[in-house]
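For practice. Supply one:
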Amino acid sequence: MDESLWSQVWTQLNTPTAYWLYSWFGVTTALLIGIALGLVLLGVIREFDEAVLVRTYPGFQPSKPASVAKRIAEMEAHDGSAVRTISLYATGLILLGLILPAGLLLILLGYHDWFVPGSSPISSDDGAVRVSDLDPAELTVFLLDQTFRGGLSDTFEVFGIALTDLTNNPDNRVFSAFFLSYRILAGAVTVAILILGWRLAKGIKRLKDAIGDVGADAGT
């Protein structure tokens, strides 16, 4: 009896439907982990204050040339360390917010007949395009086009820019929703990175001003 029961369970665990569920579970789990970690990094980036790039010292400014040079070197080292740290966070956000979802989307596209059977998720001016007829380079360019359309908002549409004549097939509602979600994600990541770049530029300017003040106070 027990052997028969386990045999039935094992059989059910090895059916095509079970493999399909395993596949979706793996993709969904990877995406959710990436989103969770990405949100953590996004929170760190949003809380970034350019003032941390400028190291402050209590008391009087140094006056001797050697002391001034040491102070400036310490300020520049502190700035470099802070910039490297926040740049690592930004790189992580790009990896988790853009590259990981793009990779998962590429897997879904490559095996769309398995994940979402039905009409092709990609089309061109001539109609639906079989994904199996596209080589990896064409799929990569297509995803880059989707990334830029999300990251640069309506810039591509307004100026009629396109990296490829391939686009999503609106008849495939599931994949169209995937592409829309990816574009929204790409736009959010792009905005976060642009804001971070602006804050870094402000922080570096503040550092230069602070270094100039140290030199001016010392009469150098």
